[in-house]
Amino acid sequence: MIIIGERINGTRKKIREAIEKKDKDFIKREIKKQVDFGADYIDLNAGIGKGKDREKEDIKWLIECLYEVGDILPSLDSSDPEVIDFALSLVKNQDVMINSINCEKEKIEKLLPVIKKYNEVKVICLTMDEKGIPSDYKKRVEIGERLIQILTEIGVKKDNIFVDCLVEPLSVNHENGVVFLKALKEIKKLNVKTTCGLSNVSFGLPNRKIVNKYFLALCIYEGLDSAIVDPTIPDIREAIYISEMLTGKDEFCMNYIKRVKEKHF
Ligand code: THG
User: Fold this and answer.
1) What is the total count of domains within the chain?
2) What is the value of pTM for the model shown?
3) What sign does the dihedral 67-70-75-78 (CA atoms) show?
4) Which of 68, 98, 195, 237 has the fewest CB atoms within 10 Å around its CB?
């Protein structure tokens, strides 16, 4: 499973404060911790609600922090295509994720030319459009299919397409978990990769970490390829390595045994 570390996100109070104070040491520690616990990409979200220019300046600073820790791969998380374009111009190599595109006309028009410039970029596709996130899982799959078609037409390889069927809180609708899992199962048939922001599922509930852990196990059973998670949480690592072993993705259980020896959980 490709792990995208979620901790560098301007919506988190401590990160917002660190961005405002330009506290490089704090951000670098947060990055390093996630990498040490197995993050393959680090999600960088510089949105602190102070407008586009400030977001550009801040994502540039976050990218600097990232490269001061090492040659680490970024996932550029912004809802503003201009911020993504700018951030892409600053990254070192082509192995980078764009988080994200969706099926809104304006977003597609602005992001396609950017994606064309970087032909090896990995693209996270949210299954939503102008009308928001469909409650019907089949409609999410249809949006996913449309995005896959649009991206493959401009030369993006299916292997670089990560469809995110959008996890929503169970506290809002008790079927939100199952709607995601059904959409995921269908998208998996299209030979693209899949991802999600996991922790939304438990928003507003007690014992969130345990709820997230069980949901991650179910997602991995359905073949989830990647997740935006906090790998510093032992329950998350436990869910990943044990579920992968149980679903036949860990030959001779080598990875599981190695992780136990290294006291990963
Ligand atoms: N899909 C995609 N990208 C995403 C999401 C998604 N990016 C953002 C988000 N959802 C995933 N990332 C995070 C980052 C941090 C937290 C949750 C998801 C987090 N939340 C605390 C909480 O919910 O309690 C905030 C508390 C705090 O620290 O202030 O830490 O779905 N493609």
Assistant:
1) 2
2) 0.97
3) negative
4) 68
